[in-house]
Amino acid sequence: METSRCIARRSALKYIGAGLIVTSNPPPLWAARTESRESWAGFATPPIWRPLEVGTGDLLIVPAKMSGVAIEAVLDSGSGASIISKPLAAKLGMSNLEPRRINGLSGKAPVGLVRNVEVVLGGQARVLPFAVVADLGAISAAFGRPVDMLLGADVLAGGCVALDFATRRFAFEKPASFVAGPEWTALPLGHGAKQELFVLASIAGLDPVPLMLDFGSSSALILSSSYIEAHSLLAGKTVSTAALGGVEGVQIVKPFTADKVSLGALSIAAVPALALDRWTSASTLGNIGLPLLGQFDIVLDVSQGWLWLRSAPPRARLPMLKDRSGLGLAASATELTVVHVASGSPAAQAGWGVGEHVVAVNGRPIDGSYTRGLLWQWRYGQAGTRVTLKLADGTTRVLKLADYY
Questions:
Q1: Model confidence pLDDT, tens digit, residues 173-213
Q2: Is-contact 170 163, C-beta < 8 A?
Q3: How far is 160 from 392, CA to CA, in rounded Å?
Q4: Parallel, antiparallel, or unpaired for β 124-134 and 149-151?
Q5: Nearest Cα to 311, choosing from 267, 376, 344?
Q6: What is the distance between the alpha carbons of residues 104 and 280, in angstroms, rounded to a whole number?
Q7: pLDDT for 374
């Protein structure tokens, strides 16, 4: 089998469209929960916890090393192969890359291949037979700072990962080191034709269907348009537009709200979702992203084929926030660039256009702290909130937030 066919159905995924840079507040570290679950009983020995950053609420950023160099990496279970950014590859002197084309969510993209890459995660070293070198610019632009690498299922398969969102920490223990207690819901992992990981989930009470398990996705839920149309899931719902970017380019998709998603006996209501026309996976009908998975404590053991979920207290969950501006934005160190204006949104009604540049929000200039602080939250305020935006040409506009899908 060709190497390119062993790579998962997509590599880099980041929503740069209106309402889909899903973000959240870091929840407080409340002692009662930390004490009651400190041991995470079930591991053979107490896990070694390490810091976990939930970047703008939708990227799991962890410390790692690649070829001996310390990096900040993104955990991305939705990618079968780990992906190195072009700038990092150049820094490490990776040349003579083997040309390949990989599958994205909706098409193919040209990339390079590098062999025998050593990655250290959670103190455990793993030599990958190959890794992909690709343009992670769409992720970096939406996140507001460079993303060095995506650690895919090939790295995660080397251990058992635990994610504790309440205290912003993760552990990477040995495979088969966890035995779940009765408070955990066990979901068997499937492997698609292109090595994508999936679990069975029910949408709006329908029969369970295979959905990719995708820590690297900023959307709580993505469903193929064919599945949505077959079950009339958009009937009576307000639908807008958003721009979805990946290594294969940018496409316009339809955001809506799914009534309910069930994973085994666990259910979450009112889930933000996307309808995607060009879905390329033949083994699945959509994917489950970080905002939805962030409603739970998580243990994932790829080698053993299990995902365990435990309901997290409400204050510990990652909020599934909803954009009320209609502006799809890419962040830089000095400004926000409008990359999409959602149909029917407050921004569309106010005459905003693609290519405009915002340099300040409510009098606070855009700088390198934009995605690290709280300023980015302005787009997710309550309906009726008025936000003052200063443009690069010196003019100011007031945008009134509203629900538009």
A1: 999 999 999 999 999 999 998 889 999 999 999 999 999 99
A2: yes
A3: 47
A4: unpaired
A5: 267
A6: 7
A7: 80
Contact 224, 276 (CB under 8 A): yes
Closest CA to 67 of 116, 123, 28: 116
CB 228 within 8 A of CB 275: yes
Structure-token pair, residue 289:
């992203």
Tell which residue, 308, 326, 305, has the closest CA to residue 238: 326
Nearest to 334 by CA among 380, 381, 390, 377: 390
The label of the residue with tokens 């060009």 reads: 278
The encoded tokens of residue 103 equal 């599958």
Hey, what are 51's tokens? 């810091």
Sorted by sequence, the CB contacts under 8 Å of residue 324 that are 6+ apart come out as: 19, 346, 379, 380, 381, 382, 383, 385, 401, 402, 403, 404
Give residues with Cβ within 8 angstroms of 205, minimum separation 6.
260, 262
Amino acid identity, position 132: V
CA-CA distance, 320 to 340, in Å (whole number)?
Answer: 21
3-state secondary structure the chain: CCHHHHCCCCCCEEECCCCCCCCCCCCCCCHHHHHHCCCCECECCCCCCEECEEECCCEEEEEEEECCEEEEEEECCCCCCCEEEHHHHHHCCCCCCEEEEEECCCCEEEEEEEEEEEEEECCEEEEEEEEEEECCHHHHHHHCCCCCEEECHHHHCCCEEEEECCCCEEEEECCCCECCCCCCEEEECEECCCCCEEEEEEECCCCCEEEEECCCCCCCEEEEHHHHHHCCCCCCCCCCCEEEEECCEEEEEEEEEEEEEEECCEEEEEEEEEEECCCCCCCCCEEECHHHHCCEEEEEECCCCEEEEEECCHHHCCCCCCCCCCEEEEECCCCEEEEEECCCCHHHHCCCCCCCEEEEECCEECCCCCCCCCHHHHHHCCCCCEEEEEECCCCEEEEECCCCC
- The pLDDT tens digits of the residues spanning 233-275 come to 999 999 999 887 655 556 789 999 999 999 999 999 999 999 9
In this structure, which amino acid lies at residue 58?
A: D
Distance CA 4, CA 26 (A): 38
Cα 239-243-245 angle, rounded to 5 deg: 140
Based on its alpha-carbon atoms, the radius of gyration of the chain, rounded to whole angstroms, reads 20
Query: How far from 282 is each of 111, 193, 211, CA to CA, in Å?
Result: 22, 7, 11
